[in-house]
Amino acid sequence: MRITVIGTGYVGLVTGTCFADSGNDVICLDIDAAKIEMLEAGRLPIYEPGLLELVQRNRREGRLRFTTNYSEAVPPAQLIFIAVGTPQSSNGEADLKYVFQATEKVAASLKGAPSAPNKVLVIKSTVPVGTNRAVADQLAGLGCKTIDVASNPEFLKEGAAVDDFQKPDRVVVGVRRPEVAEVLRELYGPFLRNENPFLVMSPESAEMTKYAANAMLATKISFINEMANLCEKLGADINEVRRGIGHDERIGFKFLFPGPGYGGSCFPKDLRSILAMGKKFAADLHVVRAVDQVNENQKRLLAAKIRKHFQDDLAGKTIAIWGLAFKPRTDDIREAPALTLIDALLQTGVKLRVHDPEALQRVREQYGDKLTYCDRPYGAIEGVDALAIVTEWQEFRHPDFEVMRRLMKAPVIFDGRNLYEPKQMETLGFTYYGIGRGRA
Ligand code: NAD
Fold first, then answer.
1. Does the CB atom of residue 36 touch ligand 1 within 6 A?
2. For ligand 1, is residue 69 a contact (CB within 6 Å)?
3. Against a cut of 0.85, is the pTM above it?
């Protein structure tokens, strides 16, 4: 099939590349010329494991191209995916301006072929319920009456995006005509060979499914964080409690790890968006609101622990931070809890030495010379008064604690991911703070 993907970010690039890899002829389009130039030069604008090899292979084999030009990319495509960003606007709603701009450009580039038979515009961006209808109305208003508009929310996780895309738990499509679902079923066929479900529903349900999924996942995280904070007050260990509940099949272990709060480009803004939808339609979403509030507090927890340890006297101290990306195996720092910690600590006059295996450059672009950037984890902890761990990169799990103790001025660790065992750390001579692991 001939496919064009509009928006070549984390979702669009993975989507386009994986469709090319299953034999389709794909053009990825973006308005960011620098991004397209980079891709044309064989480099990736993002870090995502396994993606570079896939992009290079499919370019070499002529199935994947990049452009900024709508009139080159849209007319030949049978399926046009929209994967542009839908960031949070000032009132919490998802800002749809990029979706509508892209739609307008699609319509403009089809001016010569207004009937455009059999073309489907597929909205992959996460968008509020009703957007599919609004985009269809927009297209009709611009003279494109025969283009179908489908909704196909994406559930991939950054850090495992290629794998998730190629082996999805399920594919959800929202359509108004069954024929459109059949085209998409054929497209996704190669990824569903293990009989994982292809779920056809109304566009409104498909749009809502994405928000409900993210709200549920965020709820699990805020729930376990709330339990962890109570454990800390009561002298219980959340790790023991987590195992105690996770073996119950109705509960399970996934997404039940306490931490410094969730971040990223999806959960925070999607929860605000669902809250905005609730407000607009007078449906009070108590659970979702609480999840968001718990998370906002949780993102401030590490800074509070650090201030308490140093009795609010941090001026002249140096603290190291390991892990800046919002999760491991990505360089994405959007809404990352590490940034909340950095902002809070900078206000106290502390000096910060930061390390992340992939996200250093993005943090440098944001903070400039306010921080000391360290390429190596051990380099970051030289002479520091404490270390805070915010992202659970694999390489932080088994460090040489002897080396660490020698390098650090004071052996104090604030472990936002519960990577280590409190008793072992005590034996090794560290002052150790985890999340919810006994009385703080
Ligand atoms: P992103 O910011 O990484 O990429 C968006 C891209 O769209 C940018 O490169 C931007 O230049 C481009 N763009 C904006 N307007 C454009 C236009 N008019 N024409 C062409 N390109 C345009 O965003 P992302 O993280 O890939 O997310 C995209 C959508 O997918 C969002 O709605 C997001 O909520 C959703 N989503 C993201 C993830 C994720 O893990 N990142 C997962 C599932 C769903």
1. no
2. no
3. yes
